[in-house]
């Protein structure tokens, strides 16, 4: 554990350009080296990779059609033929889990990306601009954070659903593209936007704080005194230094979004059956769990593992990317 | 260090539990978990004729007449009735024994006053139209009522003397006495309602005067707990229970755990059906009207096209849907016709809709849309999280997808989620609101444009002239006239020919009570039958 | 100072107004008319009975256009009238409901935060002391995994274990006070939620402190290990952790929706979900007002206290 050594930073800045070019290779190489030493983070990384691969190709390798019902074979436990058994309508749980992985991945990434984009724009703008714009933007994000989160999510879900549904219907009328018929996409869009809307203020605050504190750092002041451009300072100093905390926030947010989607399913407003999401499978499985525990345990444990993996991955990346720890 | 602390904590916890857990059980106490869903209300309103509270009306208030568990008609606060030649004027006599909890007798005028309170639009007793809609002046009284009127004056209701109620009807109704044989027509004192308000008068702090076997002695809206104790002035047998306690539990897994752990004796929300093996007594069954069907809306695209409806029905294997809905042996009975198996007559030859994939595909091709791709979106809802209906509807959607290639379906458990598109829902679920076992009235409720189902958004706009002619005639015939039955069956044929109803099965009514609760049944109007006979007997 | 506070106050008041407006607009244009919803949701209503709908709309002032309704609401709110519940507890003053429900959630929130803080700090310290050994990893992983499972799964599982298998407690249901055994399970389950945050923060702060020179010095001087941990390490660790705990407390007193929903604890979280499910305007508005006020007031207090506590923070 080496604490920050400001002296090193200042000396680094003196001959800014040349040092940085040499530094850049080190930064990433070091990062990879440090990351690979942290076995928890590596394990998390692999879990996430598997999760993403399954989300991408899962629906194509699924042994059964995830919607196909076989009522005679309902409630079966895991077997050779049915890897994870069947659910209350005789649908293949493994195939549904694979489809659910796609749902979970989409929820995790889109929610986080939307809130990240808004957060970076608002937070960055606030931090750089300062003054009235900063005050106003932070006031807005405070207001959103002040409202009870789930109240907001549920309100957004009930409020936005109709306009979006009707918009999709209109698009279908115009284009006859079956894509617009799929209610699954509708549920996605709603869940994304609702979750992103409560997610961005936290990220905006974080980014603004990073921008402000890094701008006050000696090496940035020095670079500015040496006549470096704002854009240069942004790209070379602020962003690399702010990356660590941001990565942690983003990975934690991804895991959190998966969990929140499950919670929405519990309230009956998430992704609707017969479409498959881990949350809705969990909620449906809850009815039968005393007799057929696998219907609830499979999605519950999967959600748990993916979330833990996200957190470990974030921690590992944070440690690896922390520029203070460059040796 | 922390290990020691942990073990100490556990020991302390165990001691605390065992000390409090050893409380003695009182023998004649009935503990009920009420609350059917997330939108249920915790209330013990007597006059609202709906909501969860309709299950418990009979504890506090006796119906005018009622059907017992074997569908026999029994007397409540009325003990006699008569009708004129053409069944347009009915008289009912109030039981001379019937009295209020303050010891005074029930008078004919009090009965009318209470009915008129229910008739006031402000009090939102939606079902009252089914019972009194045919009474002279009823419709006008409601239409003309001031927006803040707590009661209305229905000219067709009059008290001939202290114990005789006369009802004049607009159209002949030979079964009017069946019509009012429900706890929904239970009465309260109109002056109490006017003094304390419709939503307040029944609360213990207003000392409500009731005429049932029990009195609500405590009601805590915040804790969602309530208790009833016997009415000392009760004028029939019993009651046998010393007290009835209620608490509000909506989560079914919690209901199941509490029942297994002997914390409740009976519940409104059923425990998950998978617990059947662990407590078969709780799920013991009795015969009851339990209709439960899907309807397709005949005035909204695309189900406005009869060929589409035909395709949607014929493409589904209804045996398989029944299997999906009721996988556990004995949890449901298959239905093959609109008429319920406990109404006065059924078509003995009905086999249900055929599973005819080719016919369905042909019907879809003949429809104005021509193919599944051109079909506008179908909006469907099982209205709530009931496990049977959810599975059934998901199975139906899958048949559409497999056999017709229809993928454009929006499924919402909660019809609320349709928001403003509520008026576009194509398929929804409910029961036929009628609470007495008459086939003709059942068909009236299901298919007559004045009946409750076509009056609701589920089927509004539905009209079949031939069906209405048959029902209109049937309703004027005496209940024992075989022609009444024939006409009801004729109406059923017209109804099913329109492909608006999807019947697959109904859940068998389970007692939802542990074995030690004796004589606990609910009637066709879902209220508990004769709660004064209920007693606790542990083996 | 006074003018600073005044500006703050003004800013929050405008914010509150804006939130109220947005909430009301969302309900009015999105969720729809509560009377219609009542007819939809309660199966025994007759949806074409216009007379009933008209009478009820007039009773609650829902027959007016949006701006008039919102204006009326604000006008009444300014006079201390929070309105009456439309469906949740029909015609009961909303203020009465809030006054009962909020303290329950607050008690649960305080108790859970306290437990979470004690357990979390203890586990965090333990993990840091055994840094990178199996106990450290076990603590961090277990805590994370447990919190990753949704509450609506944890609660039934715990009930199966505690009620039906171990027969330790009956199913806790409703609210019988914080010191009743029925409060044990909900408090415990709520306390699990913020645990990873506290554990992680304590752990990393502790690791930072561990390598400080004065610790090495103290150790070299022969100060007993337990004394080093309690005296020299814990104190600097606690300062940032306490701030986090404060934030968690603020989040929790607004109610823990899922625990309250499953165990039917009549708290503020349950009120929120019930109000939304029943589209009960006055309830939803009250939830928005109270929920927002709690955050505003705590922010305000922090704004006042911070400069007093930390002289480095100056008021601009």
Mind explaining what this structure looks like?
The complex is a heterotrimer of chains A (327), B (539) and C (316). Chain A is built from 11 helices and no strands. In chain A, helix 2 runs antiparallel to helix 11, helix 3 packs across helix 4 and helix 3 packs across helix 11. The N terminus of chain A is likely disordered. Chain B is of the alpha+beta class. In chain B, 28% of the residues lie in helices and 15% in strands. Chain B has 16 helices and 20 strands. In chain B, strands 8-9-10-1-11 form a 5-stranded mixed beta sheet, with no helix packed on it. Chain B is globular and about 70 Å long. Chain C is an all-alpha fold. In chain C, 74% of the residues lie in helices and 0% in strands. Chain C has 14 helices and no strands. The longest helix of chain C is centred in the middle third of the chain and has 36 residues. The mean pLDDT of chain C is 81. The chains are: A mainly alpha (327), B alpha+beta (539), C mainly alpha (316). Chains in contact: A-B, A-C, B-C. At the A-B interface, helix 6 of A face helix 8, helix 10, helix 12 and strand 15 of B.
Structural features:
heterotrimer, A: 327 residues, mainly alpha, 11 helices, globular, disordered N terminus, C: 316 residues, 74% helix, 0% strand
**Topology, number of strands of chain C:** 0
Share of β-strand residues of chain B: 15-25%
Order of secondary-structure elements of chain C: HHHHHHHHHHHHHH
Biggest interface pair, counts: B-C, 63 and 59 residues
Q: What is the straight-line distance between the termini of chain C?
A: 9 Å
Number of helical elements of chain C: 14
Helix coverage percent of residues of chain B? 25-40%
Major sheet characteristics of chain B: 5 strands, mixed
Q: What is the strand content of chain C?
A: under 5%
Q: What average pLDDT do the residues of chain B reach?
A: 84
Oligomer: heterotrimer
What is the approximate shape of chain C? globular
Q: How helical, in percent, are the residues of chain C?
A: over 70%
Mean pLDDT over the full residue set of chain C: 81
Based on CA atoms alone, the radius of gyration of chain B comes out at: 25 Å
Largest sheet of chain C: none
Overall morphology of chain B? globular
Number of strands of chain B: 20
């Amino acid at each position: 554990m080496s604490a920050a050594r400001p002296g090193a930073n200042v000396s680094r800045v003196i001959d800014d350009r040349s040092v940085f070019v040499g530094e850049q290779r080190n930064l990433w190489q070091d990062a990879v080296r440090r990351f690979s030493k942290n076995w928890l983070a590596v394990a998390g990384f692999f879990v996430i990779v598997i999760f993403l691969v399954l989300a991408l190709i899962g629906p194509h390798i699924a042994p059964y059609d995830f919607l196909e019902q076989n009522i005679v074979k309902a409630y079966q436990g895991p077997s050779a033929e049915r890897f994870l058994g069947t659910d209350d309508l005789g649908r293949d749980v493994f195939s549904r889990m694979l489809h659910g992985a796609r749902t979970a991945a989409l929820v995790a990434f889109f929610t986080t990306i939307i809130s990240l984009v808004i957060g970076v724009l608002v937070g960055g703008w606030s931090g750089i601009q300062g003054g009235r714009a900063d005050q106003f933007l932070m006031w807005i994000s405070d207001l959103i954070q002040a409202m009870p989160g789930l109240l907001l999510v549920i309100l957004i879900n009930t409020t936005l659903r109709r306009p979006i549904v009707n918009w999709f219907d209109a698009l279908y009328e115009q284009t006859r593209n079956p894509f617009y018929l799929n209610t699954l996409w509708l549920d996605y869009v709603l869940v994304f936007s609702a979750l992103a809307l409560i997610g961005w203020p936290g990220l905006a605050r974080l980014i603004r704080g990073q921008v402000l504190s890094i701008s006050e750092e000696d090496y940035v002041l020095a670079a500015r005194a040496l006549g470096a451009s704002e854009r240069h300072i942004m790209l070379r100093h602020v962003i690399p230094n702010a990356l660590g905390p941001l990565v942690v926030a983003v990975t934690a947010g991804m895991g959190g979004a998966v969990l929140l989607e499950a919670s929405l399913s519990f309230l009956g407003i998430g992704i609707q059956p017969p479409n498959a999401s881990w949350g809705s499978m969990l909620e449906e499985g809850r009815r039968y769990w005393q007799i057929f525990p696998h219907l609830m345990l499979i999605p519950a444990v999967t959600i748990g593992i993916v979330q833990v993996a996200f957190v470990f991955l974030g921690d590992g990346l944070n440690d690896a990317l922390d520029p203070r720890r460059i040796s | 260090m922390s290990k020691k602390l942990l073990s100490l904590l556990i020991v302390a916890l165990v001691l605390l539990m065992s000390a409090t857990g050893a409380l003695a059980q009182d023998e004649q106490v009935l503990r009920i978990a009420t609350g059917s869903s997330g939108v249920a209300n915790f209330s013990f309103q007597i006059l609202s004729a709906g909501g969860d509270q309709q299950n418990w009306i009979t504890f506090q208030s006796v119906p005018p007449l009622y059907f017992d568990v074997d569908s026999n008609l029994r007397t409540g606060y009325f003990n006699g009735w008569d009708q004129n030649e053409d069944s347009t004027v009915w008289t009912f006599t109030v039981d001379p024994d019937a009295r209020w909890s303050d010891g005074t007798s029930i008078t004919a005028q009090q009965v009318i006053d209470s009915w008129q309170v229910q008739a006031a639009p402000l009090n939102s007793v939606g079902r009252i139209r089914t019972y009194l809609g045919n009474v002279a002046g009823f419709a006008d009284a409601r239409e003309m009522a001031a927006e803040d009127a707590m009661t209305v004056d229905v000219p067709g209701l009059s008290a001939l003397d202290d114990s005789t109620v006369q009802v004049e009807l607009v159209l002949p109704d030979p079964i009017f006495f069946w019509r009012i044989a429900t706890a929904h027509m239970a009465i309260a004192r109109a002056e109490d309602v006017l003094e304390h308000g419709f939503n307040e008068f029944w609360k213990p702090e207003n000392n409500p005067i009731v005429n049932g076997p029990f009195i609500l002695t405590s009601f805590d809206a915040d804790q969602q707990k309530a208790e009833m104790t016997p009415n000392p002035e009760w004028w029939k047998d019993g009651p046998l229970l010393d007290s009835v306690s209620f608490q509000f539990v909506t989560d079914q897994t919690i209901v199941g755990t509490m029942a297994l752990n002997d914390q409740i004796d009976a519940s409104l929300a059923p425990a998950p059906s998978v617990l059947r093996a662990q407590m078969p007594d709780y799920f013991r069954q009795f015969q009851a009207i339990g209709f439960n069907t899907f309807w397709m809306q005949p005035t909204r695209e695309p189900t406005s096209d009869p060929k589409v409806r035909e395709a949607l029905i014929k493409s589904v294997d209804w045996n398989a849907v029944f299997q999906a809905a009721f996988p556990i042996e004995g949890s449901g009975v298959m239905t093959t016709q609109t008429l319920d198996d406990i109404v006065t007559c059924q078509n003995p030859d009905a086999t249900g809709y055929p599973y005819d994939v080719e016919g369905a595909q042909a019907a879809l091709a003949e429809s104005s849309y021509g193919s599944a791709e051109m079909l506008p979106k179908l909006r469907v809802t099982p209205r709530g999280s009931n496990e049977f209906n959810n599975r059934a509807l998901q199975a139906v959607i899958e048949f559409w997808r497999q056999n017709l290639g229809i993928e454009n379906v929006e499924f919402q458990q909660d019809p609320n989620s349709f928001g403003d598109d509520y008026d576009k829902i194509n398929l929804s679920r409910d029961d036929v609101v009628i609470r007495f076992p008459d086939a003709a009235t059942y068909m009236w409720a299901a298919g007559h444009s004045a009946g409750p189902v076509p009056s609701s958004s589920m089927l509004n706009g539905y009209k079949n002239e031939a069906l209405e002619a048959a029902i209109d005639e049937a309703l004027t015939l005496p209940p024992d006239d075989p022609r009444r039955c024939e006409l009801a069956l004729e109406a059923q044929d017209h109804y099913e020919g329109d492909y608006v109803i999807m019947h697959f099965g109904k859940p068998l009514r389970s007692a939802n009570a542990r074995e030690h609760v004796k004589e606990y049944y609910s009637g066709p109007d879902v209220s508990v039958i004769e709660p004064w006979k209920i007693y606790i007997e542990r083996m | 100072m006074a003018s600073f506070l005044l500006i703050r106050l003004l800013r929050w008041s405008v914010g509150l107004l804006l939130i109220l407006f947005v909430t009301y607009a969302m309900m009015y244009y999105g969720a729809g008319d509560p009377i219609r919803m009542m007819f939809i949701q309660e199966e025994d209503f007759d949806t074409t009975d216009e007379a009933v709908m008209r009478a009820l709309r007039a009773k609650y002032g829902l027959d007016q256009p949006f701006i008039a309704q919102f204006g009326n609401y604000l006008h009444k709110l300014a006079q201390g009238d929070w309105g009456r519940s439309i469906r949740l507890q029909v015609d009961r003053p909303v203020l009465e409901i809030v006054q009962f429900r909020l303290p329950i959630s607050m008690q649960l929130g305080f108790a859970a935060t306290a437990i979470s803080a004690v357990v979390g700090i203890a586990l965090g310290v333990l993990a840091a002391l055994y840094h990178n050994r199996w106990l450290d990893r076990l603590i961090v992983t277990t805590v994370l995994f447990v919190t990753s499972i949704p509450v609506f799964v944890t609660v039934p599982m715990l009930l199966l274990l505690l009620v039906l298998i171990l027969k330790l407690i009956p199913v806790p249901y409703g609210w019988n006070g914080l010191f009743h055994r029925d409060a044990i399970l909900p408090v415990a389950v709520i306390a699990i939620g913020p645990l990873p945050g506290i554990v992680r923060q304590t752990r990393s702060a502790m690791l930072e402190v561990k390598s400080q020179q004065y610790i090495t010095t103290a150790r070299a001087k022969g100060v007993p290990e337990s004394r080093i941990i309690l005296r020299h390490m814990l104190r600097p660790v606690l300062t940032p952790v306490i701030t986090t705990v404060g934030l968690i407390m603020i989040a929790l007193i607004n109610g823990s929706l899922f625990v309250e929903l499953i165990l039917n604890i009549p708290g503020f979280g349950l009120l929120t979900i019930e109000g939304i499910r029943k589209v009960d305007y006055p309830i939803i508005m009250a939830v928005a007002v109270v929920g927002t006020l709690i955050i505003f007031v705590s922010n305000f207090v922090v704004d006042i206290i911070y400069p007093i506590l930390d002289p480095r923070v100056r008021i601009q």
